[in-house]
Amino acid sequence: MFSALRSVACVTALSLLSIGVVSAASAATAPVITSSQQLSSLLAAASTKSSLPSTTTPSVAGASTDFSGWGSCLLSYSGPGGLTGWPGEKACSFGDVHAKKTIVLFGDSQAWQWTNALDVIGKAHHVKMVLLARSACDLASITQWDFYSVADSKNCVSFANAAVSKIAAMHPWGVIVAFIKIPFTETLNHVILSSSQFSGYLATRLKQLVAITPRVFLMAQHPVPSQDPASCVAINPTELLHCGVSRNAPNQAMNQPDFALAARASGANFVSQTSWYCSATYCPALVGSTLVYLDQYHFTKTFTLSLAPILGATLQHAGMLP
């Protein structure tokens, strides 16, 4: 299973390279979800829905291009280390770009996928958002064996170290952290890190951020199906339940225990987001008429926009918004 997961992850990382020169490709309008009760009802209904409605947002054909904006600010995982190629704070700012308070969105493409939702939140709360991200980059403070490049992850570590310095120079109000953790992280000697070891290295990174601002929010990873849901929906429009994932399936939330432990050890905020994506038993590929997945590892822009009120309320409750 892991070998297949790794292969798809590599393809996904490669596909993101082409996004850098493209802004958000879809003009789809997100049906906004305004309460946790509404979301729970939609997820429960989706957990038994087997057929596509006549119209979806985005369209089935358009799901693979319904990605977030500011793609030029997402550095390539195959690029050099540090911040080489990053367009800079001005080009990678959104939300209320004239606001006095700044929140940095730091991580990999998991951070990037939330840019449009955070653009809405930033405008509403008069906060400037800045994207500082490198594709497929684990932020734990240790050089690992990198399954994407089949080499060491020194360029990723170099990026993360340089990004922390850049974040300190921005004097931000807060930092939102999001990245993907693969099921098994290894040292350069191919020794698998235990959960406590990985959490310790991640806590070290988070402590660096907490030393800059006490408002650090670590986002949980969304469910990762065993196949590309967007392709599955296109192939199986009357068998949608094959395209999602059981809430209790292995690897559906690979990082939650490790991330929760690291957040507690560092003083960062962490909130489980499983209830944003899953009913009590199932994590669907379609919620209402909204297609959830861009690919196996990312949500559609439309789905993230529909969750903007939920994300905003969560951030506000955690003290992340002024």
Sheet of most strands:
7 strands, mixed
CATH topology: Rossmann fold
- Give the SSE order as H and E letters: HHEEEHHEEEHEHEHEHEHEEEEEHH
- Radius of gyration, whole Å: 18 Å
CATH architecture name? 3-Layer(aba) Sandwich
Give the helix proportion (percent range): 25-40%
**How much β-strand is present in the residues?**
5-15%
The structure class reads alpha/beta
CATH homology group: SGNH hydrolase
* CATH level 1 class label: Alpha Beta
What integer is the average pLDDT?
88
Shape: globular
- Whole-number count of domains: 1
Uncertain spans? 1-27
Cα end-to-end separation: 44 Å
Please give the count of helices: 11
The tally of strands reads 15
Structure description:
The protein is of the alpha/beta class and 322 residues long. It has one domain (2-17, 34-317): Rossmann fold. The chain has eleven helices and 15 strands. The strands form five sheets. Strands 1, 2, 3, 4, 7, 8 and 10 form a seven-stranded mixed beta sheet that branches. A two-stranded antiparallel ribbon has the order 5-6. Strand 14 (293-295) and strand 15 form a beta hairpin. Helix 4 (115-125) packs across helix 11 and helix 6 (195-210) packs across helix 8. It is globular, with a radius of gyration of 18 Å. Mean pLDDT is 88; it is low at 1-27.
